Amino acid sequence: VREHNRKLKKEGKLNSNKRRKDPGVPNSCPFKEEVLKSAEQRQIRLEEEREKEKERRKQDRQKEMDKRRNLASGNLDSFVKNAQKRGADFERKNVFVKDQMKEHNA
């Protein structure tokens, strides 16, 4: 079984390298120039979109890093306030659950 799986995996690797080559546009095509120009414009547009997406992800990462740095270094007061708020919310929920349990048991 192991050898069979190994052979299948090897065949899959060999077949994955075989890509069809783009035949291009034949010279006999009457509007070859327009087709080539539109293909080139499409490639340029796709490349620009990739660059924009890459830049957006980079900015998102930078924002996240700045947020973490601010939280870790200088914003201790906001961190404490947030922790106190969450603690109060937890206590309120805890009291509510205890009251519900008392009503249910009674």
From TrEMBL:
Q: Give UniProt keywords alphabetically.
A: Nucleus
| Domain Guanine nucleotide-binding protein-like 3 N-terminal as annotated: residue spans | 1-63
Query: One Pfam family this chain carries?
Result: GN3L_Grn1
In terms of domain of life, where is this protein from? Answer: Eukaryota
Comp. bias regions, Basic residues: 1-21
Question: Which GO CC annotations does the UniProt entry carry?
Answer: nucleus
* Official protein name in the record: Guanine nucleotide-binding protein-like 3 N-terminal domain-containing protein
Q: Locations of Basic and acidic residues compositional bias?
A: 31-69
Annotated region (Disordered) at: 1-88
Subcellular location(s) per record: Nucleus
